[in-house]
Amino acid sequence: LKQGKRYLYQKLHMYHMLLQHHMEEGDDLAVLDQVKQHGESNPNLWLLALKYFSDQKDPGHLQTLLSWMMDTSVPIPPLQVVAILSQARDLPLSVVRPYVVSQLKQDQAHIDKEKDEIKKFQQDTAKMRAQVTALSSKAMVFQATKCDLCSHDLDLPVVHFMCGHSFHQNCISETDRECMTCGPEHRHFVALQSSLQAKASNHELFFNQLETATDGFNTIAEYFGKGIFKPVDDDDDENHVAESVGSNERFSNEY
Fold first, then answer.
1. For the chain, what are the domain ranges?
2. Ranges of Polar residues compositional bias (predicted)?
């Protein structure tokens, strides 16, 4: 009968029931095996196993489980793990310390990486703001000597784009209103911006993601990071200026 239960749970992919069955049987090795095989797709198995092993006097299997969690990207918040382990009365701190230290190091590395990215984005933003100001207030001098399409020497008539690229008039179509080099990237960002704006108005999607997320804070941080929660302010005028002087503008020099 027990073998039949295990077979049925396995066939129906009821891994939490199979894990519970191994716990009732006291088969610790089978519990570890189930978590290792199916824990990535079923994070709750890790939580059940943590609770099970934290109640045992011998912390050996718990140490094994925690070491696996340190070596794999388990989608479980560390605070939730610590909350489960804190309920064990006789669990020594030495068992939990390596996991906590490992998580703190990972978090610090992640913070340092995010700081570097923020610094880079701030520098890029400052550079783009300076370019927008220069394009909207100063005359632009075109000094290109080669066509950016055919790579031959430029000779009149020539078409210059505000992004700095220049082409023979014969190399591009009369109807082309954006730079052939920057155009695809420009259209990509315009489409991305439109997608984010559409996503911002879909409140139901946001709350559904928030309810089903393992870590709701990460979901909110992702929305903030993409600027979806950004209020409408005077920056929109600056964005409009940036678009008006972007790669869509062309200047013809036929003389």
1. 1-107, 140-180, 181-226
2. 245-255
